[in-house]
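Re: GLP structure - here you go.
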Amino acid sequence: MRVIIVKDTKQLGKVSAGLIAAEMKKKPAFVLGLATGTSPIPLYQELIRLNKSKALDFSTTITFNLDEYVGLAPTHDQSYRYFMNQQLFDYVNINKKNTHVPDGMAKDVEASCEKYEDMMDDVGGVDCQVLGIGSNGHIGFNEPGTSLASRTHMTGLTESTINDNARFFNRRQDVPTKAITMGIGTILDADRVVLVANGPRKADCVARAIEGPITATVPASALQLHPRVTFVVTADAATKLTLNWERA
Ligand code: GLP
C-alpha cells in the first residue's frame, strides 16, 4: 500500500495524473476506471493538459465509470455521464464510443449491471481504477455495509451521502436516492487503484480507510487488500494519519 501526502489539490492533480499517465503509456487500449466528485477534478485537468501537450494519447483508451444516479438521463447536468463529458471527455482525443457509464435509465437494471460487468471482462478488466472517497468512507456508491465481494448493482444512498451531494442540486429533494455502482469486488479486480482525497472533511474517513480495520462499515478500507493501491491525499485530509507515510 502506498500513501503519498501532497501539499494541495494542484499537487494532487500532478502526482495522481503522473501515476496514471505512466501506466497508460505501457499499454495500448488501456482500460481506465473513472470516478466523479470534486476530488478527481485536478487529476482530470492535468490529464487534459498532458493530452493537449501531446504527452498523453487517449485515442485507444477505453473507460468505465464507477457509478451513475438512477433516474438521471445522460443529458441531465447532474448525471455522471454529463460530468465526465464536461470534466474530461470533451477535452481529450478519446473516442466517446469507448467511454462507458452505467445506464441510470435502464429498464432492466439487473440485466444492465450484468452487461456492465461483461463489458469490462470482454476488454480484459480495468487496468487502473481512479477513486474518490465519500465522507462516510464510501467508494463509488458502495455505502457502509455493502458486501466487500459485491459486483455492479443498484443501491440506495444513505442520508449522509444525499446531504453531501445536495450541494450540486437546486433542492435537496432533487437528489436521486438510488444509484448503480460497480461493487467493491469489481473495484478490487482492477490491476491498479489510485484513490484521491482532499480537504479536512475527509480526514476521518481517510484515516479509517488507511489505518483502521478492514470492515464493510468503511468500504474504502477494503482497499487494504489490494496489492497495487496508491492513496494520494492532501495534507489537510491527512491530519488523522499516524504512520510515517511518504510526502511528495
Ligand atoms: C460521490 C461519488 C463518489 C465520490 C464521492 C465524493 O458520492 N459517487 O465516487 O468519491 O461523491 O465526492 P467529492 O470528491 O466531491 O467529495
